[in-house]
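lol forgot to send this yesterday, sorry. struct tokens for the thing we talked abt
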């Protein structure tokens, strides 16, 4: 795992997210006819607001937003690939 700095465009997108009220009539209609969609929207709102809080904490403490990503070990990948590469001239496995 490696910590990377999140691109500013993604940080801006999350920080600019706002709850949008669609009005009581539309809200009632969605709950009545599309309860799954309504619940999905509420879950997305909670998720984005939680991300905003986490981003704000990171910015306050570090000055940037970071995330952990999984990074393959280049040496390990190269070794694994070599096991499967054949010399096209002789059709033999490479010698190490």
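and heres what i got for the seq, position by position
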């Amino acid at each position: 795992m490696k910590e990377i700095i999140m691109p500013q465009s993604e940080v801006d997108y999350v920080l600019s997210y706002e709850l949008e009220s669609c009005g009581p009539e539309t809200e009632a209609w969605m709950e009545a006819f599309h309860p799954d969609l309504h619940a999905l929207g509420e879950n997305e709102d909670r998720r984005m607001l939680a991300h905003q809080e986490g981003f704000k904490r990171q910015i306050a403490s570090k000055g940037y937003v970071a995330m952990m990503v999984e990074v393959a070990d280049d040496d390990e990948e190269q070794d694994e690939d070599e096991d499967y590469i054949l010399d096209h001239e002789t059709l033999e496995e490479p010698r190490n």
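Confidence is low (pLDDT under 50) at residues 83-94. anyway ping me if u want another try
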